[in-house]
Design goal:
alpha/beta; twelve-stranded mixed beta sheet; 397 residues; Rossmann fold; 12 helices
Length: 397
């Protein structure tokens, strides 16, 4: 039988999401709307009035002496100076955290200027620090885009892992009737899915559990990252779901060339189905990728499966990352790691393992109030023609 790692006796990791500036504060509020569990939410802003609209449990007004509570005026240097006034306060609030997500919209004043310094404070404390930011629409002008690119460069120097969401990508998935708030909500879903995927893997029970050490292996000092979530049903549900997760339309990245990948299975998936999905991922990512997967117990309807992937160690998208469809490699994949300690299934009594379904259960991604199709749901063609060899220990005896 499989060796099972239980996290029943582990202390939950303390995970913070810090929204900096207007867009960051909005992202935190949307996470509250979606009932994201297992995290503490913090809002930071120079604008006192905007901060009052935040529903975060902890709110920090920065630069009160400098800005008089009136915001940074789209000047990143003001945002940077403002956060220095409150460096010690921020340090004291976050010092016991295990992991921090710093999120903002790049291009303005507070988020662009302050987010890199907030990340620096966290990382100097030894906290695993992840940045999730947006780039402005092209139509917002060159000065704002230049501010954003400079801010992203500074943030990258102060985070372990960075995820960048170009707002222009929203134009590819939204129709003419989609409102601006609903479109921006789709960008926030990337943050929400990434945070929930990580916290679920660490803090929720499952047949194959990961712990915080696994997360650190994949995300510590890893640079550019890709986060995606996919859903599948039917005969090829696991492969379909992992394809969807790999092809996240809001990111400029893919898993090709990733050094480390975490895969989270939720739902009713058999072990052979899981093997097929991981094998497909390995072929695309490359044989050198270190793949760790776990499972989470959630409530899932029917026979569906949900898969979240976090791929790290990617090159900058600006240097060119090929679409998933064109980069599948014919290489021998590295066997996936079962949680932290399992390099392969542990069998009892020398018997062959049967292909037993893992009834994990997972909650389907809810459709937003706009009734638009969720950004993380795709129609992917079946992969039944794949000739993936099943190892002997996974065949029925």
């Amino acid at each position: 039988m499989l060796e099972i790692k239980s996290n029943d006796e582990k202390n939950p990791a303390r995970i913070l999401v810090i929204g900096v500036g207007g867009a960051g504060n909005n992202a935190v509020n949307r996470m509250i709307d979606e009932n994201v569990e297992g995290v503490e939410l913090i809002a930071i802003n120079t604008d006192k009035q905007a901060l009052s609209l935040s529903r975060a449990t902890t709110k920090i007004q920065i630069g009160e002496k400098l800005t008089k509570g009136l915001g940074a005026g789209a000047k990143p240097e003001v945002g940077a100076s403002a956060v220095e006034e409150n460096r010690e306060e921020i340090n004291d609030i976050i010092k016991d955290a295990d992991m921090v997500f710093v999120t903002c919209g790049m291009g303005g004043g507070t988020g662009t200027g302050a987010a890199p310094i907030v990340a620096e404070i966290a990382r100097n404390l030894g906290i695993l620090t992840v940045g999730v930011v947006t780039k402005p629409f092209s139509f917002e002008g060159k000065p704002r885009m230049n501010n954003a690119l400079n801010g992203i460069a500074k943030l990258r120097e102060n985070v372990d892992t960075l995820i960048v969401i170009p707002n222009d990508k929203l134009l590819q998935i939204c129709d003419k009737r989609t409102s601006i708030p609903d479109a921006l909500k789709k960008a926030d879903e990337v943050l929400q899915q990434g945070v929930q995927g990580v916290t679920d893997l660490i803090n929720k029970p499952g047949l194959i559990n990961l712990d915080f050490a696994d997360i650190q292996t994949v995300m510590r000092d890893k640079g550019i990252a890709h986060i995606g979530i996919g859903h599948g049903s039917g005969d090829n549900k696991a492969v379909d779901a992992i394809k969807s997760a790999m092809e996240s339309p809001l990111l400029e990245t893919t898993v090709n060339g990733a050094t480390d990948i975490i895969v989270n299975f939720s739902g009713n998936v058999g072990i052979v189905e899981a093997y097929d999905a991981i094998t497909y991922l390995s072929e695309v990512a490359g044989e050198e990728a270190n793949i760790i997967f776990g499972t989470v117990d959630n409530d899932v309807a029917g026979e569906d499966v949900s898969i979240t992937i976090i791929a790290t160690g990617l090159e900058d998208s600006d240097k060119g990352i090929s679409p998933v469809a064109s980069v599948a490699k014919k290489t021998s994949p590295t066997p996936p790691t079962f949680g932290e300690t399992l390099k392969s299934p542990t069998l009892g009594g020398g018997k062959k393992a049967a292909a037993v379904p893992l009834n994990l259960g997972a909650k389907k991604a809810e459709i937003s109030e706009s009734n638009d199709t969720p950004v993380d749901t795709f129609d992917v063609k079946s992969s039944s023609n794949q000739n993936i060899k099943i190892p002997d220990f996974l065949k029925r005896g």
